[in-house]
Amino acid sequence: MRPNCCQFRTSEEVDSWTHTAIHWPLHLSHHGDPIATAAGAAEGVILSEGFHYAARKQADKAYADGYDKGKSDAVKQRYWPYVSLQKRRNQVGSVCLYSVQLPEQRIDGLTFQPSTKLLRIEE
User: Domain ranges in the chain?
Assistant: First the structure.
């Protein structure tokens, strides 16, 4: 079991202790005036909520930025291998053209005249 000073505190507990540490001297300096104490408490609540709003807004922006960065990285992970594949596909080591003589043929009732075609071989 840990000593009491090492236990983790929730944000509400920390806010409560911070609020007390800040406003207790003010309460004493106004000689316990309930109106001054209430005004100080209201000020603390407004200030605390303002800090929470700013922190939440910053966290939401950081989350959105991280989400956008993650989507961008995912697209890049698919894009760059595709570009690399295209470059390799378009790179030709050597091309050889072979002349092929096609004889007269009859296919499905059609007669094809003899011709010469080029056969392209890429290595």
Answer: 9-93
